[in-house]
Amino acid sequence: MMNDSFVHLISLGTIIVSMLIFGTFLLLSFNIKTWLEDWGHSLTMAVYLEDDISLTNKDHIAAFLKSVPSAKIKRFISKDDAYRDLKIALGPHSDILEGLPNNPLPASFEVILDIHEANIDGFKKFQKKLESYKGIEEVQFSEDWSRRFEGMMNVVRYIGFTIGGCFCLCVLFIITNTIKLTLYSRSKEIEIMKLVGATDYFIRVPILIEGLIQGCLGGLLAILALYCGYLLLVTKKISFLSLAVLEFQFLPYEYWLSIFVISVILGLIGSMIAVGRFVNL
Amino acid sequence: MIQLFHINKNFGGKPAILDLNLKIRAGEFVFVTGPSGAGKTTLLRLIFGSDIPDSGQILINGINLSRINRSKLTFLRRKIGFIFQDFRLLPKKTVFDNVALALEVVGERANNIKKSTRQTLKLVGLAEKEKAFPLQLSGGEQQRVAIARAIVKKPLILLADEPTGNLDPILTQDIMVLFRSIHLKGTTVVIATHNQELMNNTALRKIPLQKGNIIDC
C-alpha cells in the first residue's frame, strides 16, 4: 500500500504543476494582450487643415478634439513644422524640396486615439464629425489597420477563453483522478467507517476539507513558482528573447487571485467528484 | 427482534442461502453453526444489511431492510455491532483509535469516547495496549480489538462471525464470558461458529445451517 503522505504529495504536486501551466498560459496571454493593446493605443489620426483656415475655426477644431475622451491631441504641426519634418526625413535627398515654388504641406493636428475608450465604429463617427468642420482638408485614419487590430484582439480573447476553459477541464480531470488515487489508499478505512455506522456526511467532510486545503496550498505554491519563473525570465529576456523593447509584466493581482480561487474550487470539485464513488461503496 | 422470511441469496448462480425462515427474539443468545460454506457469514451479512437478498424480507426490530434507504440503514447499523472474521481493523490507527472510531462516527462527545473506549479495552483485557497498532498485536489480541469496537457502542444486536477463531481455549472462555455479560444487559447476540467446544455445556439455542438452510437436529 502506498504511503498516505506520499500520495498526498503526489496530489499536491499535480495541483501545483497543473495550476503552474495554467498560470503560465495566463501570464503569456496577459502580456500578449497588453503588448497588442499598447500598439493599438498608439493608433493615430491626422487632421489636415486648409491653408486659409481662420484662427477661430482652428480653435473650434482644437476645442472639439479636446472634448472627446477617446482622443488626445499629441501635437499641432504647422505648415513650417511639416516642411521641416519632411526635410529631415528626406535627409540627403531633401534638395528636391527646393524646386517647389511654395510649401505644399498642410498644417495638421496629430491625434492619438485610445482604444480603451471607443471602438472602430466610434472612431469612424468621430472622423465623420471632424470632416464636417469648416477649414478641414482631410482626416486620415487607418480604418483597415484598426479593424484588423480589433479582430486580432478578439481572436486573442477567444483563444484565451477556449484554451483557458480546456485547461480548467483538464486540470479538473487530473485533480479528480489524483484525489481518487489518495482515496484508493483510504478505501478500506472508508469501508470500515461505513460498516460501523458513519454517515456519508461524516466521510465526505474531511475529504472535502482535504481537497480544499490541497487546492489552497497548490494555488499558492503555483503562484509562487510562477513568480520565481517570471523573475528568471526578466533576467534572461535581453540575451535570449530580445524582448527588451517590450516590457514583460507579472500578472496583476486579480489574475493571480483568480488562479488561487480556481485552484481552490478545482480542489473542492475534484474531491467532490472523487469521493462520490467511494461513499457509495 | 430479527425475522427472516423466505430468504434466498446466490453468488455467481450458486445458492448461499436457500429459502431461509428464521426468527430470533430480542435479547436472545443464539449460535449459528455449520461447516464452512454452510452460509453462516452470508446470513450475518444479510442481517447486517451489507448483502441484499435476491428475494425474501428481513425485519430488524420491525424495520424492513429492503424498504429503507442507505441513510436509514446507516443509522440502523449504529445499533448493530459486527465482529468480522477478518477483524477489519485500520492498520494506521492505534488500538484506542480503532475502538473509538465506532463512537466518533455516531457523533459521541470526546469525553464519553475516551471514557467508554478505555472501559471497553479494559473489559477485553487490552487496557495496556491502547497505544499499539494492530499489526503489533497477536491474532487473538486483534480479535479482541474487533470485539471491543463492536461492543463499545452498546449495541442492541451483536453479530459475531467466528469470534474465537484465533483465540486459545482460555481466551475463548474469557470472550464467551464477555458475550454472556453483554447478553445479560439485554443485547441480542448471534454468534456464527463451527467451534463445537464453544457450544458445549450450554442450553443456548443453536441454528444449524447446511447448504444455506436450517437443518433439523
Quick tags:
heterodimer; A: 281 residues; alpha+beta; Alpha-Beta Plaits; four-stranded antiparallel sheet; 8 helices; B: 217 residues; alpha/beta; Rossmann fold; 2 domains
Class from helix and strand fractions of chain A: alpha+beta
User: For the terminal residues of chain B, how far apart are their CA atoms?
Assistant: 24 Å
Strand order of the largest sheet of chain A: 2-3-1-4
CATH fold-level name of the largest domain in chain B: Rossmann fold
Query: How many E-type strands of chain B?
Result: 10
Helical residue percent band of chain B? 25-40%
In terms of quaternary structure, what is this? heterodimer
DSSP strand count of chain A: 4
Unreliable sequence segments of chain A: 238-244
Query: Considering the protein shown, what is the CATH homologous superfamily of the largest domain in chain B?
Result: P-loop containing nucleotide triphosphate hydrolases
Going by CATH, the architecture of the largest domain in chain B would be 3-Layer(aba) Sandwich
Low-confidence stretches of chain B: none
Helix percent band of chain A = 55-70%
CA radius of gyration of chain B is 17 Å
Q: What is the total number of structural domains of chain A?
A: 2
* Lateral strand order in the biggest sheet of chain B: 6-7-8-3-9-10
Q: Globular, elongated, flat, extended or rod-shaped: what is the shape of chain A?
A: elongated
Describe this structure in words.
The complex is a heterodimer of chains A (281) and B (217). Chain A has 281 residues and is of the alpha+beta class. Chain A folds into 2 domains: 2-38 and 147-275, no CATH class; 42-143, Alpha-Beta Plaits (2-Layer Sandwich), CATH 3.30.70.3040. In chain A, 69% of the residues lie in helices and 9% in strands. Chain A is built from 8 helices and 4 strands. Chain A has helices at 4-41, 55-67, 79-90, 120-131, 143-184, 187-195, 200-241, 253-279, and strands spanning 44-49, 71-77, 108-113, 136-141. In chain A, strands 2-3-1-4 form a 4-stranded antiparallel beta sheet. In chain A, helix 1 packs antiparallel against helix 8 (253-279). Chain A is elongated, with a radius of gyration of 30 Å. Residues 238-244 of chain A have low confidence and may be disordered. Chain B is globular. Chain B has 7 helices and 10 strands. The mean pLDDT of chain B is 90. Chain B has 2 domains: 1-79 and 155-217, Rossmann fold (3-Layer(aba) Sandwich); 87-154, no CATH class. In chain B, strand 1 (2-11) and strand 2 form a beta hairpin. Chain B has 217 residues and is α/β, with parallel strands linked by helices. Chains A and B meet through helix 6 of A and helix 2 of B.
